[in-house]
Specification:
Blueprint (H helix, E strand, L loop, with lengths): L6 H6 L5 H14 L3 H7 L5 H12 L9 E2 L2 H4 L4 H7 L1 E7 L2 E6 L5 H11 L3 E6 L2 H11 L6 H6 L3 H7 L3 H8 L2 H16 L4 E6 L3 E8 L2 E9 L3 H11 L11 E9 L2 E12 L2 E10 L14 H11 L4 E6 L6 H12 L6 E5 L10 E4 L8 H8 L6 E4 L5 H12 L3 E6 L4 H11 L3 H7 E13 L4 E4 L3 H6 L8 E4 L10 E12 L2 H8 L4 H10 L5 H10 L5 H7 L4
Parallel strand pairs: 1-8, 3-4, 11-15, 11-16, 12-13, 12-14, 14-15
Antiparallel strand pairs: 2-3, 5-6, 5-10, 6-7, 8-9, 9-10, 16-19, 17-18
C-alpha cells in the first residue's frame, strides 16, 4: 500500500474489506504493480477514494477539480514548470493567502517554492488527485490569456472540418482551446455578476452578450467558424445531445469556482443562423437577502412582514420575469423559517438552498407538476408552502384549499400590478368568493438599477423628465457619471420598488362583486397603498436610483 494511506485506515473507513486487500495483494504479486494500483484495477477502490481518506487524515479538504473553474489571473501566479514539477495548481486567492491544489500537500519544498514564486505570504494546500491536477495543467497553461488570443489559434479550416460530422463536433468540443474559451466566457460572466450569458449566432459572427443588472451588454464577437465548436462544448457540459440541432434542448451545468457553487441552466433554440444558447447563472452559495435589504419602505416592510407571519392565507408576489419575485419569496421564507415550522416548496427551478426547508423541483416528464406536487405536499403536514408559480386553475384551486385549511401559501403570478392579480385569478376560472376568502396580500414589484456610489453626482433633470414624474418644480436629483467600478454604466446592483395591496374587507367585497382591477386599485390607493411609480420616485429623491430607471420599469398609473 501507499505510504500515504495504510490498508488498515482504508478498512477502518469502510472503503475496502480485508478480503479485497488479500485479493489485491495476490494480483500485485502476479503483475508486479503496487497493492494500491491492484485495488484500483480490480475496481475495489478509486484514486478519489484514496485521496479523500488521505485528505481526511491530514485534516484538509479534498477538491474535485473535474468541474472547477479557475481564474486565468490566478493560474499565472504559479509558473507552469513549478506546477508540473510538484503537481500543484493555484485555485484562488483571499487577501495574502493563496489556496493551491496539490497531489502531495506534505511536500515542504513544494510549498516553499510556490510561496517564493507566487509572492504570497501564506500558501494553503488542499488535496486533489495527480490526474485531476494534470488535467488542469493541460487545460489552463500554454494558452493563458484573453478569449481573443484563444480565438486566433483556432483556424477556420480546422473548425470547418470538425463540423462535418457528429464525431468531429464531439472532438472539437474536447479541444483544449475550445474548453478554455467557454471557461473564460463563464468566468468573465461570473466576475461581471451577470445573470445570463447569451451566445447568439448572426450571419457572419457569433455575439456574446451578458445580462448585467437586467440589461444586456455585448462583451465580445467570435468568428463564425467557431460557432459549432462553441455550441458543442456547451452542450457536452450540459449533457445535451450534440447531434440535435433542429429542436430546442434544456440542460444543466454544475461548476465550482473559488468558494462558489454555480448552477447554470442552459437552453438552446434553433434560429436561421444556428443554435442560440442562453445560460442562466445561479450562484447557490450566494447569501439570501433579508427583507430589509430588498428595498422596502419602512411602512411596506412592516405590513409585508405581518402578512408572511399570518397562520393561513395566500400571499402573492407579482411582476414580469426577472423582476426579483423569487428573491423576495426566499427572503420571506428565511424571515419566518424556524425549527417549529414545517416549510415545503415546489419550484421551477430550485435556485437557492435554504436550511431546514424541504425544497423540490417540478419535473413534468416524471409527472411532477405544480398541481401534483402541491397535492402531495399537503400530505406532508406542512405549516407553510411556497409554490413557484400559479399557472393554471388547478394549481390555484389547490393553493386556495390549502390556505382555507390552515396553511400559509406563498406564490407568484405574472401581472403588471397588484390589483390585476385578483382579476387574473377570476379569469382563470376561480370562484370570486374563494379568492376573497383566501388571498390576504399581493406584492407587485420591479427591479431598478442603483446609482453607482463611486461616480454619483447631482444634476437638474430636464423639463420632460420633470413632467413625466408629475413634479411641479425642478429639483436636484442624482445619477452616475460612469467609471471603472460600474463599467461606465453609472449603476451597480439593483433594488426593488414595490406596491403592496393588503386585502381588506372592502376589497374582499369588491372581488366577490367582480369589480374591475382599476376599481380595486383606486380603493387600495384610498386605503394607503403606494403604487410602483410613487415608491420608485421616493428612491429617486433620495438618490438611490434615477428617474429614467423608474420610468423604464413602470407603467403610467
Amino acid at each position: 500500500m501507499s505510504s500515504r494511506v495504510s490498508a488498515d485506515l482504508l478498512i477502518k473507513k469502510g472503503i475496502i474489506t480485508e478480503g479485497q486487500i488479500n485479493k489485491a495483494k495476490e494480483e500485485a504479486m502476479k503483475t508486479g504493480m503496487t497493492t494500491e494500483k491492484a485495488l484500483e484495477k480490480l475496481g475495489f477502490i478509486s484514486e478519489v477514494d484514496i485521496a479523500t481518506v488521505y485528505a481526511d487524515s491530514l485534516g484538509i479538504p479534498f477538491i474535485d477539480l473535474s468541474d472547477y473553474l479557475i481564474d486565468p489571473e490566478v493560474i499565472k501566479l504559479v509558473p507552469e514548470a513549478v506546477a508540473n514539477k510538484y503537481k500543484a495548481v493555484p485555485l484562488f486567492k483571499i487577501g495574502s493567502s493563496l489556496t493551491v491544489a496539490m497531489a502531495d500537500p506534505e511536500d515542504i519544498a513544494a510549498l516553499d517554492e510556490i510561496r517564493i514564486k507566487s509572492k504570497f505570504d501564506i500558501v494553503e494546500p488542499v488535496l486533489s488527485t495527480p490526474d485531476m491536477i494534470q488535467g488542469v495543467i493541460d487545460q489552463y497553461y500554454g494558452a493563458i490569456g484573453s478569449a481573443e488570443e484563444l480565438v486566433k489559434g483556432m483556424t477556420k479550416e480546422k473548425m470547418d472540418a470538425s463540423a462535418k460530422s457528429v464525431k468531429g463536433l464531439a472532438g472539437a468540443a474536447e479541444e483544449a482551446p475550445v474548453i478554455k474559451l467557454v471557461n473564460l466566457i463563464i468566468l468573465q460572466a461570473v466576475k461581471d455578476k451577470a445573470s445570463d450569458v447569451h451566445i447568439e449566432p448572426a450571419d457572419d459572427k457569433v455575439l456574446i452578450r451578458f445580462r448585467i443588472d437586467g440589461i444586456l451588454h455585448e462583451v465580445q464577437q467570435i468568428p463564425k467558424h467557431l460557432q459549432s465548436a462553441l455550441a458543442s462544448r456547451v452542450k457536452v457540459m450540459a449533457k445535451m445531445d450534440i447531434a440535435e440541432i433542429r429542436n430546442p434542448q434544456d440542460g444543466r451545468i454544475q461548476l465550482k469556482m473559488e468558494s462558489k457553487s454555480l448552477d447554470l441552466r442552459v437552453s438552446t433554440f434553433p434560429t436561421m443562423h444556428g443554435e442560440n444558447i442562453v445560460m442562466r447563472i445561479l450562484d447557490k452559495s450566494s447569501v439570501i437577502l433579508g427583507l430589509k435589504e430588498l428595498g422596502f419602505s419602512s411602512k411596506d416592510l412592516v405590513e409585508f412582514d405581518k402578512l408572511v407571519r399570518r397562520p393561513n392565507g395566500i400571499v402573492l408576489v407579482t411582476g414580469p420575469t426577472g423582476s426579483g419575485k423569487t428573491t423576495t419569496l426566499y427572503a420571506a421564507l428565511s424571515a419566518i423559517n424556524s425549527i417549529e415550522k414545517n416549510i415545503i416548496t415546489i419550484e421551477d427551478p430550485v435556485e437557492y438552498e435554504i436550511p431546514l426547508i424541504r425544497q423540490t423541483q417540478v419535473n413534468p416528464r416524471a409527472g411532477l407538476t405544480f398541481a401534483n406536487g402541491l397535492r402531495s405536499i399537503l400530505r406532508q403536514d406542512p405549516d407553510i408552502i411556497m409554490v413557484g408559480e400559479i399557472r393554471d386553475k388547478e394549481t390555484a384551486d389547490i393553493a386556495i384549499q390549502a390556505s382555507l385549511t390552515g396553511h400559509l401559501v406563498l406564490s407568484t403570478l405574472h401581472t403588471n400590478d397588484a390589483a390585476s392579480s385578483l382579476t387574473r385569478l377570476v379569469d382563470m376560472g376561480v370562484e370570486p368568493f374563494l379568492i376573497a376568502s383566501s388571498v390576504i396580500g399581493i406584492l407587485a414589484q420591479r427591479l431598478v438599477r442603483v446609482v453607482c456610489p463611486k461616480c454619483k453626482e447631482k444634476y437638474i433633470p430636464s423639463d420632460e423628465i420633470i413632467k413625466d414624474l408629475g413634479l411641479s418644480q425642478k429639483i436636484e436629483l442624482f445619477r452616475g457619471k460612469g467609471c471603472m467600478h460600474c463599467r461606465n454604466t453609472g449603476f451597480t446592483g439593483r433594488l426593488g420598488i414595490f406596491e403592496l395591496l393588503t386585502v381588506t374587507e372592502e376589497i374582499k367585497n369588491m372581488v366577490t362583486a367582480k369589480r374591475s382591477a382599476n376599481e380595486i386599485k383606486k380603493k387600495a390607493i384610498e386605503q394607503g397603498m403606494r403604487v410602483l411609480r410613487d415608491d420608485g420616485m421616493e428612491k429617486v429623491k433620495t438618490g438611490v436610483t434615477t428617474a429614467e430607471e423608474v420610468l423604464r420599469v413602470t407603467e403610467e398609473t
